[in-house]
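name: query_chain
kind: protein
chains: 1
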Amino acid sequence: MEQSERLTAERTEVKSFHPTNHKTDAAAAKSSFSGELTVPKFYTGKTVFLTGATGFVGKVLIEKLLRCCPGIRTIYCLIRPKNNQGIHQRLSELTDSKLFDKVRKEQPDFERKIMPVCGDVIQPELGISEHDRQTLEREVHIVFHSAATIKFDETLRVAIEMNVVAVQKMIKLCRDFKHLEALVHVSTAYSNCDLTHIEETVYKPAVEPQKIIDVLEWMDDSMVEMFTKKLLKDKPNTYTYTKQLAEWILLTEGAGLPIAIVRPSIVGATWKEPFPGWIDNYNGPSGLAIATGKGLLRSMRGECSSLADIVPVDIPINVMIAVAWYTAVARPRQLMVYHTTTGSVNPFTWGEMENEVVNSFKRTPLDSCFRRPKLIMTSNSYMHDYLLVISHLIPAYMADFAYRMMGQKPRMVKIYRKLHRSLETLSFFTCNSWTWSNNNLDVLKHQLSPDDLKVFYFDARPLHWPTYMENYCLGAKKYLLNEDLASVPAARAHLRKLRNIRYVFNTVIAVVLWRTLIARSQIARNLWYLIVSLVFKFVRYFRITSTM
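structure:
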């Protein structure tokens, strides 16, 4: 705590950025450099340092930089050894991805520009060796910090270490970079989700980040758990809370550095580049879509009219690249925040998403579906709980009983418990809506040349949601589940089989209920015989007409 107070005392008061402060600066900047130094030219000969390179955002960022800024010199990627894989092996696994097919065709030797740096954001000094540190200090011009834990239910201790303390370490590292021109930090549009309207500004947290870091050093896990509930207040999870703390760290402890913050909303599959629908993780809408397509997810708590602020990953990537260029060339006098959202310019609701996903997977079904795709979204918690029992738990226990009878290991109940935990963490976002200002993004748009705007596009207005969701679902099938499109006819036949099984099952249940509960009176029996006779007459008539 003494260290935090000393840092605060040594600095002059740092005011958070408000969009209106930079309109005059933006106009002056435009006249000074617009059209003279395009984004690709700016990156020519530049060296980039990237954290979170093996993550979804990091991969797409690397591909876009290599393909659209071919003059870039080197991209250093902070990578930690994992699962008995070294950093070079993990990098090779990354570059072998289908994501890089286009750049591989255009630049066969593109891998020479990507250099792995062994490190870990939770280690002291980011786990970077002295030799690598000196190399980075001497060569790096642009830093993109996207490494973070995105688990909503992460413990506060781990979330603070990875999302807040790591930012402190990054600031300390960047202060020694001799040629640093921009540090772009990837945050989230939900870092201040306790508000309904969010400005492009850094909001001061209720408790200073350093105080939280200090108390976590001596608290045991049980105390941290109790402390977390009181600390979060209106925040739904530790992810959004620690992202807000990290932004405050950047504003205060990063004073004097060329820092910018990009806040994307819910990041989804690619819209245009390098090809539509690429996705490689189950986070956010991807897991929900696949669970729906497999017939596992049948009920979801949410408000159909609430905005599903999904942003294709290529939009924030283009914003990040352009923001680094603008920060380096225009040199804004204050830290700038850029919202990368879609709800304010091209709204798309959860109800519309539900409909598009179900229809997409009916047209192009996944292999080996548990049931036919169907999803009911309700904001009524009692109805949701009822549907979970009827549509999830009872079929899961029945399936596990069948697996046991066949000598196989039961698994459906376990799958559904995991699915329910995910639904619980997402319900806050599916039941609420937010609005975000985007003045800074508009300013950035006017600084780019027409050619740069075409290459580094981030205007979501032309996005056609039904087409995007169709490509999203198709991409999940192809790239995430690795299912062959040649199997679609068989998958459709499987859905028809499931439909027929459902019809037979429902009919049997109806007959049993009728015979055991209703058909005890003479009137009910007469009605039953009437219905059966009518059915036989219809069948007989159909046979006679078909033979004529």
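note: The mean pLDDT is 87.
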